[in-house]
């Protein structure tokens, strides 16, 4: 999978981050939206975004909802509600803002197949042996486009960045 040290993910596109240092670069705790706020604002986006000098919206709670749903229901919900929210956000802000999902457990839950660059989400117990196919569900298996986010001071990836979901 390609990697980026560029900070473009802080201003554009869709990202899924799990590194504390990455989160600290884009927002403070009081600027983070709940997943409920995100879904409530679909097609009613604010002119001013709360984070990164009006360049980003950081959302927490996606991992919690995925953990509560059965894998089949989670897949449908991701492909319907979350993808719709992403597409609506992209349509409203075009390329002038970043939607960032904060996934504190993402380092251990996001799995990348090194042979195909397919990205999955490892489900919580009792479905630990199941992975949701993020790439297929959210970006139509365009696996050449997501990039691992690297910070200069951190060697391991702290997230994934996708410039535009279609």
Secondary structure layout plus pairing:
Blueprint: E1 3-4, E2 13-17, H1 20-26, E3 33-34, H2 35-40, E4 56-60, H3 62-68, H4 71-93, E5 98-102, H5 106-109, E6 110-112, E7 119-122, E8 131-132, H6 134-139, E9 147-149, E10 159-162
Q: How would you characterize this protein structure?
A:
- This protein has 166 residues and is an alpha/beta fold.
- The chain has one domain (3-162).
- It contains six helices and ten strands; from the N terminus they run ββαβαβααβαβββαββ.
- A seven-stranded mixed β-sheet has the order 1-9-10-2-5-4-3, sandwiched between helices. Strands 6-7-8 form a three-stranded antiparallel β-sheet.
- Strand 7 (119-122) and strand 8 (131-132) form a beta hairpin.
- The longest helix has 23 residues, at 71-93.
- The protein is globular, with a radius of gyration of 15 Å.
- The model has no long low-confidence stretch (mean pLDDT 93).
């Amino acid at each position: 999978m390609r990697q980026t040290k560029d900070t473009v993910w802080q201003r554009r596109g869709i990202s899924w981050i799990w590194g504390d240092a990455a989160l600290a670069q884009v927002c403070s705790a009081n600027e983070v939206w709940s997943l409920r706020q995100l879904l409530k604002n679909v097609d009613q986006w604010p002119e001013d975004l709360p984070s990164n000098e009006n360049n980003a919206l950081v959302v927490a709670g996606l991992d919690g909802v995925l953990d509560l749903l059965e894998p089949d229901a989670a897949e449908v919900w991701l492909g319907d509600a979350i993808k719709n929210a992403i597409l609506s956000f992209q349509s409203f802000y075009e390329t002038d803002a970043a939607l960032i999902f904060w996934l504190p457990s993402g380092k251990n839950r996001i799995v990348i197949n090194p042979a195909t660059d397919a990205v999955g989400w490892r489900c919580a117990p009792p479905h630990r042996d199941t992975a949701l196919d993020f790439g297929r569900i959210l970006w139509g298996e365009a696996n050449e486009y997501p990039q691992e986010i690297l910070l200069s001071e951190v060697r391991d990836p702290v997230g994934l960045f996708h410039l535009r979901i279609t």
